[in-house]
Amino acid sequence: MTDQAQIRTATAADAARLSLVANATFLETFAGTISGDALVAHCVKEHDAGHLAALIESGARAWLAELNGAPIGYALLTKPDLDAAQTGDIELKKIYLLSQFHGTGIARDLFQAAVDGAYGFKRLLLGVKEDNSRAIAFYTKQGFKQIGTRKFDVGGTLYDDVVLARGLTPFA
Q1: CA separation for the pair 101, 85 (Å, rounded)
Q2: CATH number for the domain including 115?
Q3: Which of 81, 130, 162, 165 sits 20 to 30 Å CA-CA off 141?
Q4: pLDDT tens for the chain, residues 1 to 172
């Protein structure tokens, strides 16, 4: 056994692992700030293993951060689903890491895997809850700038997100 986290490309066969860590990290991040019913409804719909497998099979790219074989974080790139998107953009739809691993460098490595996976695209876009100052600070440090806002549906409840973008090499 090793105590070093590993980041690897996830496939549709990893959908159950992705679902598990997606639910754990989403609940850990938003429990107490978003209604419990909305959280559960969101997780049931958006983090279902079948849904995640279908996304990957239709061209989405995913990465898993694992420690001793246990999923502790993940990232997901998809076609943009943002009004601010332009031709040549890709969206970082999800990137989450269990909080006990914050500050270890794993989030940075997971983010870098997603950036590397976005090679050939012009810009990387993402939406983040407007009051999530920790995430916004991380993304700002990574070169993102706000380009818009959106409403984000979590289990039928709308929340305000900021939409951020950063250029990608060699196009930046």
Answers
A1: 31
A2: 3.40.630.30
A3: 81
A4: 457 899 999 999 999 999 999 999 999 999 998 999 999 999 999 999 999 999 999 999 999 999 999 999 999 999 998 888 999 999 999 999 999 999 999 999 999 999 999 999 999 999 999 999 988 998 999 899 999 999 988 888 888 999 999 999 765 4
Domain hosting 10: range is: 6-167
Torsion-angle region of 71 (φ positive above 0: left; ψ -120 to 50: alpha; else: beta): beta
User: Residues 45-58: pLDDT tens digits?
Assistant: 999 999 999 999 99
The answer to whether residue 1 is domain-embedded is no
d(CA 172, CA 30): 33
Please state whether beta strands 89-97 and 123-129 pair in parallel, antiparallel, or not at all (unpaired): parallel
In a domain, 131, yes or no: yes
Token pair 């090499």 is found at 169
* Residue 172 is assigned to a structural domain of this protein: no
